[in-house]
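Entry for flavin-adenine dinucleotide complex. Fields follow.
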Amino acid sequence: MKYDVVVIGSGPGGYVAAIRCAQLGMKTIMVEKYPTLGGTCLNVGCIPSKALLDSTELYHNASKHFPTHGIDVTGLAVNWPKMMQRKEKVVTDTCAGIKYLMTKNKIDTAIGHASFASAGSIEIAKTDGTSERIEASKTIIATGSKPANLPFAPIDKKRIISSTEALSLAEIPNEMIIVGAGVIGLELGSVYARVGTKVSVVEFLDSTIPTMDRTMGKELQRSLQKLGMKFYLSHTVKAITSDDKRVALVAENKSGEELKLAGDYCLVAVGRQPFTEGLALDKAGLMTDQRGFIPVNEHLETATSGIFAIGDVIGGAMLAHKAEEEGIFVAEYMAGQKPHINYRAIPGVVYTWPEVASVGYTEEELKQSNHEYKVGSFSYRPLGRARAANESDGLVKVLADKRTDEILGVHMFGARAADMISEAVVALEFRASAEDIARMSHAHPTFTEAFKEACLAATANRAIHS
Ligand code: FAD
Ligand code: NAI
């Protein structure tokens, strides 16, 4: 069978690319090696983690915050199997939605492992042992990523686990060790800390979420400590050992002092690595770089003409919405359009509570590049809405060009930051100045007033409520 496009991988990169290709009139097939569509994000990433974050946040609020609001609850308990079942149903329904979208857009799907027979020819090995070969004028590789391992303590999926296993534990652990204070470590650490697990996080660098603006890491750490999470920053993990029931970790701080921790599980969350196993890239004239990513040019085209790659497998921010933008970009480029992605305006969110959300440059990046900037910060504390909601733990930080006032970066920590960051994305896309935002009316009382106030603070320090 000859197609215009074959998409390998059904994650947010692959399925969105397939839909856009079909919308643009291309005969499209998407190949996925797992029986359910949706990739890491829908099956073992964004969706199940957010389902558990939402469930455990409700429990945490009911137990810790309802009394403050004058709501008395008795007999409150976590029904863990039911919480897991709900999460599974959310995943199943969301994955089914992708199947529906494929049918609706007349996209063929094949379940099986895809590999290159040559450029333009793909072999699909199915689980029943049969195989099928398809030809396509263009190929989009969207094979994603997998969890990175510590070389001395490989993930055994029993006691030394990755996010995938941590999303489906049969029981609530008493103690959990987490290696890595990045996004996965803090989101899944929150899930378990909220239901009573003693969570200890060991991080190599001197900050949590170290790639984000450092103010955010400090605020978030303080807040998660209140939840009971313990942090061991600037620690090098030396060994992780386990038996049937327990796991032990040895680490060392910068002064050489030894840290010993024990727990029921050790979640290794030290990043993810590109996945290209079994693709036979060489048969299409392709190679990965030293870190395993597929190199692409500014059109996301690989070294072989007509073969494109998108999403986690090409590096950059490993985010679902970044993969989606790249999927649309490639489809439109192949159709002769002139798409554009502004990578600086792709937001990043940590779905803890309070949430962290960021877009644009961090203060550390601006300092490093000697870019002259000014800062406007505004705390949630004086906000009427934050007081009404009992959510005063928050901060918005705006970084603007010192000379032109153009907004260069926005960093938010607090309730609803994940949704509020969209306004900052619009500001960056339209190259707004802090003055522009400061002069726009923001509904009262809302959390968004903190963004306006931070912009007022950035323009000659004229915040009203501080
Ligand atoms: P993937 O989603 O990894 O999809 C790749 C697909 O390709 C997989 O289904 C795989 O089976 C398939 N495949 C691979 N090789 C072959 C082959 N040879 N033949 C056929 N099929 C193949 N990002 C966010 O933006 N927001 C979040 O809240 C968020 N939460 C996350 C939580 C966790 C726990 C994890 C692990 C990740 C999270 N991410 C989140 C990251 C997000 O999941 C990824 O960035 C995103 O899934 C990348 O999309 P992709 O299409 O590039 O690849
Ligand atoms: P990460 O890159 O966010 O964090 C990994 C952390 O581990 C870093 O802080 C790093 O310094 C630390 N680390 C690395 N090696 C270590 C070692 N040997 N000992 C101790 N610490 C070590 O990666 P993470 O959390 O695994 O997530 C993977 C990817 O998934 C991320 O790129 C992220 O973008 C994506 N993701 C996104 C989410 C979101 O958008 N909300 C949620 C979860 C994952």
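NOTE: The chain has a mean pLDDT of 97.
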